[in-house]
Amino acid sequence: MSKLKARPTALPSTTVRVPTAVGTAFITITFDSDEPAEVFVNLGKGGTESFAMAEALGRLISALLRLEKLGTVGERMDIVINQLHGIGGTAAGRAAPSVPDAVATALCKATKGGDER
Predict the structure, then answer these.
(1) For 81-102, what is each residue's pLDDT tens digit?
(2) DSSP 8-state assignment for residue 117
(3) How far apart are CA 9 and CA 95, in angstroms?
(4) Is residue 41 a contact partner of residue 103, using CB atoms and an 8 Å limit?
(5) Which end of the chain is more exposed for a tag (fewer CB within 10 A), N or C?
(6) pLDDT tens-digit series, residues 30-67
(7) Phi, psi of 110 (to 5 degrees)
(8) Are the C-beta atoms of residues 84 and 65 closer than 8 Å to each other?
């Protein structure tokens, strides 16, 4: 079984704001040695189903990034972005089509410097 890399006490981070159909998502990506280390997804008020799903999504991505012996962090990040990009929802206009797509957008901006996927 793979082990999770230990988390340092403090890590630098960047937060990206992305509008979605269910509210504004704030996605925070922490970095360890210039590589993504954790992802926190905040959406709506605590105690709601959408908040819980957003937190779960962030925890799963963070666990994947911290796994040892499973490709590079960059390769794992590309897998996450490719899997989440394009998941549809009910958004119209300038909002992300879904919270997972909003997370993919934020990860691209924070790690690749733009929206290119």
Answers:
(1) 999 988 887 766 667 888 899 8
(2) -
(3) 35
(4) yes
(5) N
(6) 999 888 999 999 997 777 888 899 999 999 999 998 88
(7) -75, -30
(8) no
